[in-house]
Automatic annotation (TrEMBL), chain A:
Highest taxon, organism lineage: Bacteria
Protein name: Uncharacterized protein YcfL
PROSITE patterns per record: PROKAR_LIPOPROTEIN (PS51257)
Alphabetized InterPro entries for the sequence: Spore_lipoprot_YhcN/YlaJ-like
UniProtKB/TrEMBL annotation, chain B:
Top-level taxonomic group: Bacteria
UniProt keyword list: Membrane, Transmembrane, Transmembrane helix
Source species: Thermaerobacillus caldiproteolyticus
Entry protein name: Stage V sporulation protein AC
Signal sequence, start to end: none
NCBIfam families in UniProt: spore_V_AC
UniProtKB/TrEMBL annotation, chain C:
Pfam families: SpoVAC_SpoVAEB
Protein name in the entry: Stage V sporulation protein AE
NCBIfam families per record: spore_V_AE
Species the sequence originates in: Thermaerobacillus caldiproteolyticus
PANTHER family on file: STAGE V SPORULATION PROTEIN AC-RELATED, STAGE V SPORULATION PROTEIN AEB
Length: 156, 160, 118
């Protein structure tokens, strides 16, 4: 009887675990480079002009605390993800505020989303590569940016 | 061991205390600390590896990856406790294995396993938090006090 | 990323050494030590010092039990921000639940699976 109960629990756990795994795996990134980006960190596109993103990356990378940065933009939104040099990670909150302010001044017409999170960095990088390759349209990019914004604001 | 307690003792008892203290085996503090440092550090590195795993293959951010990592570490603690390995690690590492959450998990799980012969309700249910209960109690109460003070300070003191 | 592993190791190790010193030098029992560490974690977060440590050391700061106190305070403050003073009471387990619920669930499963030794 006890063995039966144990087996049942294990099987249930396995089923529940795997069912969820598949769903998440699809939207997760796989097979991309973990940190490497292009030298300039931006993408050219035939449909959405990425020059704003390119400028933003240049400005951010000029800061001494920032190790690497990626950006993606649409006509209204600008998503910037960056990595802070390790010794500056104690001050990450302040750095984020500074960068946000700097970008707001530079690009007053864009809604600015800033993240220092490694996961967001990977995903933004992936998105940028995709724009580079397939030339996504404005609507699709906006959707992706929205998704990343939501992910970056999650607490638990 | 508190000083107030000792004052109430008779002179003979005080003498015995001194005698006892003299004979007490010296603990190898430095050696223990080095062991605790390496084992504790190693457990944290394993935790870091697990959290990178979750971040890479699932949609967790640096901010949210803590919870699944902790849960996985507790799961590992269950396996090692059940196999009797964790006790041996604890003997070697002291605080190095009891300060990380795995130690918390070990305390709960070993109590649960130990008391299962007394039945699931009275034994497992009743004794599970025998050791870990104080951690939860003081953690929760301290958090309540700290959060209350901070909230009041921010709201009416204009701090923060 | 290697820097992250390195600092997780160092900071995590140091917190464990603090625990070991409390046991060996101040002669506290492990239960007293762990309770004290949790309280320290809560107080550190009250001053806003624990979050930067997590940014810096990752799992080196989230795996030791001190982070339990930190996340309890965090949940309480976050909830208090939204709902006022009553949030201090209701929000406490908002962020933390993982450690405790995992310990309960796996503790019970462990009791089902394993037999007591000796």
């Amino acid at each position: 009887m006890r063995k039966y109960v144990t087996m049942l629990m294990v099987v249930t756990l396995l089923i529940v675990g795997c069912a969820r795994e598949k769903e998440i795996k699809q939207q997760s990134l796989q097979g991309t480079n973990m940190i490497k980006t292009n030298r300039d960190g931006t993408a050219y596109s035939y449909k959405v002009n990425q020059s704003i993103a390119k400028q933003a990356v240049q400005h951010i990378k000029a800061r001494k605390e920032v190790r690497d940065a990626v950006a993606v933009n649409t006509s209204k939104k600008l998503l910037v993800a960056y990595q802070v040099k390790h010794m500056h990670r104690f001050r990450m909150k302040q750095i984020k505020k500074d960068i946000e302010q700097q970008l707001k001044q530079l690009f007053p017409n864009h809604k600015i989303i800033v993240s220092s999170d490694l996961k967001i960095f990977w995903k933004t990088n992936e998105l940028r590569d995709k724009i580079n390759k397939d030339g996504m349209n404005e609507k699709q990019i906006n959707k992706q940016i929205k998704k990343l914004k939501k992910l970056s604001e999650e607490l638990t | 061991m508190a000083n107030e307690k000792r004052k109430k003792l008779t002179p003979v008892q005080q003498e015995y205390h001194l005698f006892e203290k003299e004979r007490e085996t010296k603990r190898p503090v430095v050696k223990n600390c080095i062991r605790a440092f390496f084992v504790g550090g190693l457990i944290c590195v394993i935790g870091q590896a697990i959290s990178y795993f979750y971040m890479y293959f699932f949609d967790f951010t640096e901010q949210t990856v803590g919870n699944p990592t902790v849960a996985t570490m507790v799961f590992l603690a269950m396996i090692f406790t059940g196999l009797g390995v964790y006790d041996r690690i604890a003997q070697f590492a002291g605080a190095g294995s009891s300060v990380p959450v795995t130690g918390f998990g070990n305390a709960v799980i070993s109590a649960a396993i130990e008391h299962r012969t007394e039945g699931f309700v009275l034994g497992v249910g009743g004794n599970m938090f025998k050791l870990a209960g104080s951690v939860i109690l003081f953690g929760t109460f301290a958090a309540f006090v700290v959060a209350l003070i901070k909230t009041i300070a921010v709201k009416w003191g204009g701090l923060g | 990323m290697m820097a992250m592993f390195f600092w997780a190791f160092v900071i995590g190790g140091i917190i464990c050494v603090i625990g070991q010193i409390m046991i060996d030098v101040f002669k506290l029992t492990p239960a007293h030590t762990l309770s004290t560490l949790v309280v320290i974690g809560a107080i550190l977060d009250g001053f806003g010092l624990y979050e930067p440590l997590i940014d810096f050391a990752g799992a080196g700061a989230t795996i030791p039990i001190t982070s339990f106190g930190n996340s309890l305070v965090h949940g309480a403050l976050h909830e208090a921000d939204k709902h006022g003073i009553i949030g201090v009471l209701t929000g406490m387990f908002e962020v933390t639940s993982a450690g405790i619920s995992a310990a309960i669930v796996f503790g019970f499963i462990g009791a089902l699976l394993f037999r007591p030794k000796g």
